[in-house]
Amino acid sequence: MTRKTSADFDQRALDLYDDFAHGRISRRDFYQRMAAVAVAGVSAEAMIQALMPNYALAQQVSTDDPRIKTQTFEYDSPKGGGRMKGHLAHPKKENEKFPAVLVIHENRGLNPYIADVARRLATEGFLAFAPDALSPLGGYPGSDDEGRKLQASRKPEEMLEDFMAAAAVLQKHPLSTGKAGAVGFCYGGGVVNELAVRLPEVIQAGVPFYGRQPAAADVPKIKASLLIHYAGNDTRINDGWPAYEQALKAAGVKYESFIYAGANHGFHNDSTPRFDEAAAKLAWQRTVDFFRTKLV
After folding, report:
1. How far is CA 42 from CA 47, 54, 55, 242, in A?
2. What is the C-alpha separation between 212 and 238, in angstroms, rounded?
3. Percent of the chain with pLDDT over 90
4. Is there a single domain that holds both residue 41 and residue 156?
5. How far apart are CA 261 and CA 201, in angstroms?
6. Are residues 139 and 240 in the same domain?
7. Helix, strand, or coil (residue 31)
8. What is the mean pLDDT of residues 201-226?
9. Helix (H, G, I), strand (E, B), or coil: what is residue 116?
10. Predicted confidence (pLDDT) per residue in 19-62, tens digit
11. Range of the domain at 77
12. Which one of 49, 183, 225, 275 is CB 3.0 to 4.6 Å from 270, fit for a cystine?
């Protein structure tokens, strides 16, 4: 299966996809504007289809991988969506406990890519749990477009409560060592930052990938160590980094940050052409090493 990369597209097309994926423009506007950047011999429709997620490309670890065990895990979020579900994965080892990592999805629910990220962490020795914020609405619907609409219909504060409840449950899970971290992507990266602010006694290590920054006034509440990943071309998110970094330094928060030159927002997501293999591999290895240092 041939994988297209960002080099196969005009940067304007990638930026338009980012606007569409985050709800800043409608599907109609997306199609109309893509027509203006279509190259000779390639229709706007063909370009759009090439930009859409292909989850067959994103599976690195199958659910029946012999190294791990997986299951659907349920928990209660009384201040959020009520009864929640997610994808739990851990190494296939008997009578052992593992450091725990919460995996927080993008703005479209628990899609196959995020579930795979949880399984990747399990192969590295972690108890990983990826909740689905769409649980109260029936769960991820199998389509990112529909998932995005469903997630937009939920109250942001209630979804944050869902992830806070998940972090607390995961930390106390029978297979957890009691040391817990969180990694999140896009919307989920922003949630990681918020969890570090709101759950300083639970989250010991946080890894936000291109996530929205918390309010500067809240940064002194953070006790966790942070590993922060940004994409070089992601000016929308990166504009908030200087103030965040200043606040982290002023508060004495332990952090390390990396900006991956030439990479686009979503560069770790290997289901779309925004995937940057070199940046994704480097950021992921740094992430695994960071969790091993901070949680083990």
Report:
1. 7, 19, 23, 40
2. 9
3. 77
4. no
5. 34
6. yes
7. helix
8. 98
9. helix
10. 888 888 888 888 888 887 776 566 777 777 778 888 888 899 99
11. 68-295
12. 275
